[in-house]
Amino acid sequence: MSADVPMQGDERDRMNEWVRLTSTDGYDYLVRRKVAMCSGTLKNMLSSESSFSEALSNICPMNERGIIVEKLSEYLIYKSTYEGAKKNEDIPDFQERVQPEISLELLVAADYYDA
Amino acid sequence: MSYDIDSGGRRIPTLVQYCQRVASANVESICSLGEGWRNDLIRPVLESCTPETLQRFEDADPYIANDTQDIWKRLFLKEFPIAAHQYESNALEEPESWRDELFALRDREHAKLNALSNRLKASRQEEEERKRESAIKLTDKVPPAKRSRPWGAPSQPKTLFQKTRSEASRLSKGVLGSRITRPAFQTRRIVPNTASAKPPPPSRTASSVKAPSSAQPSGSRVVVRSVPVVHRPPPPSKQASPMLTESASAIPTTSDVCSIPASPPPTASSPPPPSSPPETLWSPLPQPQTQSPEARSPPARAPGKKNPGASLFMPKHRAYSQLPRGVQSKS
Predict the structure, then answer these.
(1) Which of A18, B22, B30, B301 could disulfide-pair with A98, CB 3.0 to 4.6 Å?
(2) Which residues, at least 6 apart from B40, have a Cβ–Cβ distance to it below 8 Å?
(3) Closest CA–CA distance from residue B52 to any residue of chain A (Å)
(4) Which domains does chain A have, with CATH numbers?
């Protein structure tokens, strides 16, 4: 998403589309496409240029537990919200929102999804 | 890519970094890492472990130990800087396993500490034992009384009155070790003289030879019949002879015996009335003179010589004397 400087209206509309992220234990999370694009892996999965099925259906089945998907989505939203912030602005720290109990598992997932 | 570089945006740490930070901060709570960790991912977590934690991880998942040599070396250096310095200066060869080296050195240090502490404990216990020996213990038994001075010696210096009284009682009782020894002819003789038998305290009986040491020792003395004692007068004091003759003639009756001691001797130097007669009696002892015919007079005279008796009294010992130092006492 960061590389798309000349944003067409269609593109923008498309970016506002909802994308569904599914987990292994039945939880689904809806995020905007532009949010999902913060994740390198998801971006590839959803890229319109690819021929993955996800690109057509806007559904990304993630092989993670619900909690992990949720935390990942949370981070993606945080990232998409503040990556354009100016230097003077105060950004809330995300570290507090990472529970130690899931930190290792989230680490693995974060690495996989390149978040 | 660690950071997202935007045209005007901020660098936000990646989720990977956040997770690494959180995991490192709570590494003590991690039981084990599990399998399949990529080294670069788990590295920050391992680096923030203590030796115990790292050992736990390596024991649970041995593959982790593959890349932890430098971590162990760093831990060893932190714990034993002096020993590590030896290795750095190539005095010793670097051990194959820093981890083994660390734990071995730790055990040695602990052993040394234990030995020292045991030694300290033992010496402290010994000292406590010694203290306990000499400490004050509670008991219901009375410890044997210590006699710092010879038996019978007074615990406090006696007053003059006490001294004279004790001397008199000692004399009459014939206490062992008494300095006053009577010659044979001075043994007690009971004279059938009721007057003498009646000492100032009327309650006393004539037969009582020994009177309990009391405030009226004169009674016993009188009974004991220090005959010669009566004749003392002349040598003791200057006034002795004239007064003696006077008293001899006086021969007060039994009743007078009581009264006479009571009357305070006018010229008495110091001894109290009751004790003056007795003093008169025993003070002249050293120069005994037996006179049976005077058996009666002595006791009678003793009381009669109240006044002269008082003046006659000369302390045996210089210490008792209240005369000025220069005057020689009779004794």
Answers:
(1) B22
(2) none
(3) 20
(4) 10-112 (3.30.710.10)
